[in-house]
Amino acid sequence: MDNRILECVPNFSEGRDMEIIRQITDEIESVIGVKLLNVDPGAATNRTVVTFVGDPEAVCSAAFLAVKKASELIDMSKHHGEHPRMGATDVCPFVPVSGITMEETVYYARKVAARIGEELGIPVYCYENAASAEDRRNLANCREGEYEGLIKKLEDPRWKPDFGPALFHERSGATAVGARDFLVAYNINLNTTSIRRANAIAYDVREKGRPLREGDSLTGKIMYDSNGEKIMVPGSLKSVKAIGWYIREYGIAQISMNLTDISVTSVHIAFDEACRKADARGVRVTGSEIVGLVPLKSLLDAGKYFLHKQQRSSGVPDEELIKIAIKSMGLNELHPFKPEEKIIEYIMEEKNKQSLADMNLKAFMDETASESTAPGGGSIAAYMGALGIALGTMVANLSSHKKGWDDRWKLFSDWAEQGKVLQNVLLSLVDEDTAAFNKLMETFALPKKTMEEVQIRNSAIQEATKNVTLVPLKVMETAHSGFGLLREMVEEGNPNSVTDAGVGTLALRACIKGAYLNVRINASDIEDKDFVKEVLIKSCDIDSKAKMEEEAIMKMVEEKIVRAHITS
After folding, report:
1. How many CB atoms lie under 10 A from the CB of residue 538?
2. Fewest beta carbons within 10 Å, which of 132, 145, 406, 503?
3. Are residues 157 and 232 in the same domain?
4. Which among 348, 377, 394 is the end of a domain?
């Protein structure tokens, strides 16, 4: 897949007939350069959220084909569902993921919108960053009146479509095409069937809030400003849109949220705030659900947040953080939450390519012992470093909940988080070292029949050799950053685990010495002497400092062991 990645998340007004949904997604998957990530149908809302990514041009083609197929298969004159909607393809937002700016995303969104309007004759409104006017940025404004109000809306000159005819399309309705940042569709489950109470909580939290009323906040007369506009009382959460509804499929009311900027209001903050507002109205939150996909960071941040509320260390593996997030927000209440199907980064991983880091211990050992030249010393050095820092992280986690040390949990949690970052970097370098070596081997197989081919081959070999030198240097730099963690754990950590920190120190020293050997041997084949000089000076300095760090830390370890024997 190209480094320029565009995401598209169309919402189709069909969530019950899986054959119709399949035909639409088949159109998407027919486009080369596009990967279908998720299909999330909802029977009660009669709506399906589809997510796919790929090269921008390919994504645009797939989006148009999907809209076209939906216009052929979905009849809006017969559509009923709980979710606001105005068309067979109700919304079609484009989201920049990698290597593409919002300005470029706007260009692609409006390009698709124009094609939908011109070739399919469907009225199209552009919203969010793709909007042609400020009052069209908000999707709710574009969709106001829904499908049933389209005839009247299209007669209003102020609501002339951005693309396509200002004519009512009975079968397909209208479509909103947008360019926006990553949005999380998030529903919060309540122990009530009351839409009114769900709406009241939604108005409490959503940024737009509720109309100001005279006297009684529920039944009083709505107040207007001098321009005739409703005076609104803002809700408690920024970048949040929300409404309440009843889901017959589950027999409960929900607060349906769109978190339009999760860097402003995250999933876990939205959940906790909804819990507070619900409790104030005598309602309980029983769980929640994420519709479509969610970035990995959202769940990791949620896991850390809920662990910190317990005064527990958050420097634990990602899998544990995700498990805590799922439990804490009740993401499993209505149906199983499967991280491999809901987290965008996990879905985008290559399923058929097993990395060294994914192997079990025996498989990794056997692969190392085989006749292949990789993985070799570089990968093993990186793995030793990862294990060394992992031991330091373990001591930090154990120390964070040691009896009598409750006031120090945050200190050890911070150290554990630092350790986790370093060990994950070193783990990735296990594969990176082998990949760099394999890339070098490929350059030796390049053709060398002509003088030009010889020059190209030699240049490629030199560049690849520089890379196999820089990777172990990065291993050295990363591993050396871990001595601070291990020193702190020996000095301040749980005394029962001092030898674990000692073993971690020895592993870190072996990692750095092993990576240094690789730097030196690889650098000997590089013709760029300035490059070689710089790399050797830097690596030698790290090796010397690592030796001193190891000696100092191991001296403390020995002293603590001696004191333990004296006091026992």
Report:
1. 14
2. 406
3. no
4. 348
When divided into structural domains, the chain yields a total of: 3
Q: How far apart are CA 346 and CA 351, in angstroms?
A: 9
Q: Is 204 a catalytic residue?
A: no
Known catalytic residue at 480: no
Do 273 and 198 share a structural domain?
yes
Please say whether the beta carbons of 241 and 206 come within 8 A.
yes
CATH code (residue 526): 1.20.120.680
The pTM score is 0.77
Pairing state between β 34-42 and 210-211: unpaired
Euclidean distance between CA atoms 321 and 306, whole angstroms: 9
Choosing from 40, 55, 83, 272, the catalytic residue is 83
Tokens of 227: 């321009």
In the predicted model, is pLDDT for residue 2 greater than 60?
Answer: no
User: Final residue of a domain: which of 348, 366, 390?
Assistant: 348
Q: What is the Cα 367 distance to its own chain's centre? A: 32
- pLDDT, one tens digit per residue, over 420-473 is 999 999 999 999 999 999 999 999 999 999 999 999 999 999 999 999 999 999
Same domain for 96 and 165, yes or no, is: yes
Spell out the residues 6+ positions from residue 231 whose beta carbon is closer than 8 angstroms to its own: 211, 212, 223, 224, 225
Among residues 162, 272, 301, 433, which one is catalytic? 433
Backbone φ, ψ for residue 196 (5° rounding):
-60, -45
